Amino acid sequence: MRQDARQERMREIERTALCLLVGQGYGATTMAAVAKAAGASFETLYKWYGDKQGLFRAMVESNTEALWEALGLSPAGSADPLALLEEFGPRLISVLTSDAVVELNRAAAADPSGELGAIIAEAGRGTIAPQLNALFERAKAQGAPVPHDPAEATETYLGLLLGDLQIRRVVGRVPPPDAAEIRRRSDRALKMLLGL
Length: 196
Hints:
Shape: elongated
Strand content: under 5%
CATH topology: Tetracycline Repressor, domain 2
Order of helices and strands: HHHHHHHHHH
Number of strands: 0
Helix content: over 70%
Oligomer: single chain
Largest sheet: none
CATH architecture: Orthogonal Bundle
Structural class: mainly alpha
CATH class: Mainly Alpha
Radius of gyration: 18 Å
């Protein structure tokens, strides 16, 4: 199977898995159920994802990878780190408040095993935070007025950027923010961080 055809097929399978997850919860969403609903072979799912945890990890990782790829830059690349953050912030807000991510987080909150939440934490924040740490380290080395500790800068930035917006989306209290609100939140977070 060609790479682009395989990637499209994987996206179809992952959309199907998300629908099952929303409908029946993490515990009841089996690889067999996903295979049947997606019209895929059980063997293909295990070959591509390994197991159920691998499938959901791949879904979360595709969101985090898309954040950096959409910018056309690597977080370790040579671009100005503050300029990269100016573009990264709005994309992060958009991804974390998207319907698909909201549904994943709702399912994680309802999963008594904590397994899905652990996958989201590891493949999501566990991937993004070190990349942000590296950006803040580079910004500091270039003379930007960021907090001394890059990990502290990351925590502060994420807090300023998101506040309780993501959880308010998960509990259905607010709609997804529009582009103007996303830009305003992102610009404010970076300005406040640099003003500390």
